[in-house]
Write a structure and sequence with these properties.
With 390 residues, this protein is α+β, with helices and mostly antiparallel strands. The chain has helices at 2-24, 32-49, 87-107, 154-157, 184-193, 201-209, 214-219, 240-249, 264-276, 295-301, 362-368, and strands at residues 71-73, 83-84, 118-124, 127-134, 137-143, 149-151, 173-181, 223-232, 258-261, 285-292, 311-315, 319-332, 338-349, 352-358, 377-383, 385-389. The protein has a five-stranded mixed beta sheet, sandwiched between helices. The N and C termini lie far apart (73 Å). It catalyses: NAD(+) + (deoxyribonucleotide)n-3'-hydroxyl + 5'-phospho-(deoxyribonucleotide)m = (deoxyribonucleotide)n+m + AMP + beta-nicotinamide D-nucleotide.
Length: 390
């Protein structure tokens, strides 16, 4: 048994090394013919010994049906981000944070904050994940929930092969935040053979991660990118550059687009580049995130009751599509408010399948001439909510 256990540990270390090269670095280090015997040997030893180590790669295939998801209280709050819809909003945010820094430096001339510098990152469009590692071992994974309490989905997250089950950092507890996604190429391949094709990558990822059958999650072949350390017992980093370095050193998959710049003008240049390449990516993004890089500055600026003052989400302009108006119905809300609803021929906008659009009120219907327009072509725009416009 001791010899078998040591052999299992050696196999796990080797297999996980190759999995990291393949799923995180996108640099395969073995062929399937070389990899499969290692994995099969591990499965055989686990069956013979009746022992399965918690960080074994065999635990990624999905296990028994879950009865439900237990609440999980995060060690550090997962904050929402304030939004900038355009250039003016972004500049207004920059003006606010620059004033806060200037005011602080005026009051603390002997210990001023450094000049502002920024990082521009992708805002992935999937399901937020919060992973907990205890002395290097993945012990919990949870949804964002309300930012304070989420749902534990560890069994499902373990099926994501780009999520490390064990990391080199073993100094206490650490929470790492990221996003679970489904690559567009994976969605296309899945739908090519699926009895029930999935509508879009966002819903496919979120639905899989909150499915009570981890085997379904495993079949979706999800991916995950990580971008933040929410809590750590003892780890301290001076800036975002060090944080990204830590994540990479500990085998987390980091966004391929993390740009560090020293001015708000350079931020805008990066935004323009990333907006232009948005539709070339193999995953959905719904915006970009701009953060101040210096951790001490973040601590000084602090938070509102909803958002960190040191970060902002730059939302893309509304996407539009043309479809056919099929019907107009009336929806009665819980308060008794009546809202007209347009049914349209299903159309994909930014990865979301849209079939229903709010019309706001009767005046809106009159203005858009929709009372007698069934069968007409209409423009629809997705901008936070979905609306119909002529």
């Amino acid at each position: 048994m001791p010899d078998a256990l040591e052999t299992m540990k050696t196999l796990i270390e080797e297999i996980n090394k190759h999995n990291y090269a393949y799923y995180t670095l996108d640099q395969p280090s073995l062929t399937d013919a070389e990899y499969d015997p290692l994995y099969d040997k591990l499965v055989q030893l686990e069956a013979e010994t009746g022992t399965v180590l918690p960080y074994s790669p065999t635990q990624r295939v999905g296990g028994e049906l879950l009865k439900g998801f237990d609440p999980h209280r995060h060690l550090a709050r997962l904050w929402s981000l304030d939004k900038a819809q355009n250039h003016d909003d972004l500049m207004a945010w920059h003006t606010r944070v620059q004033k806060l820094v200037n005011d602080y430096n005026t009051q603390h001339p002997d210990d001023p904050l450094p000049p502002l510098s920024f990082v521009v990152e992708l805002k992935f469009d999937g399901l937020t994940l919060n992973l907990t590692y205890d002395h290097g071992e993945l012990v919990q994974a949870a949804t964002r929930g309300n930012g304070v309490v989420g749902e534990g989905i560890l069994a499902n997250v373990k099926t994501i092969r780009s999520v490390p089950l064990r990391i080199p950092y073993t100094d206490g507890i650490i929470e790492v935040q990221g996003e679970g996604i489904m690559n567009l190429s994976v969605l296309e391949a899945y739908n090519a053979t699926a009895a029930e094709p999935l509508k879009n990558a966002r819903n496919a990822a979120a639905g899989a991660l909150r499915n009570l059958n981890p085997k379904v999650t495993a079949e979706r072949k999800l991916n995950a990118y990580f971008y933040n350390i929410g809590y750590a017992d003892s780890l301290q980093v001076q800036n975002h550059q060090e944080m990204v370095g830590f994540l990479r050193d500990n085998q987390f998959k980091v966004s391929p687009f993390v740009e560090f710049v020293d001015s708000i003008d350079a931020v805008e240049e990066e935004l323009e580049k990333l907006v232009a390449m948005r539709n070339t990516l193999d995953f959905l993004i719904d915006g970009l995130v701009v953060k101040i890089t210096d951790m001490r500055t973040r601590e000084v600026l602090g938070y509102t009751n909803k958002f960190p003052r040191w970060a902002v989400a730059y939302k893309f302009e509304a996407e539009e599509a043309v479809t056919t108006l099929l019907d107009v119905s009336w929806n009665v809300g819980r308060t008794g408010k009546v809202t007209p609803l347009a049914q349209v021929e299903a159309v994909d906008i930014g990865g979301v399948t849209v079939q229903n659009c709010t019309l706001n009120n009767m005046d809106d219907i009159e203005r858009k001439n929709l009372k007698y327009g069934l069968g007409s072509l209409v423009y629809i725009r997705r901008s936070n909510d979905v609306i119909v416009r002529p």
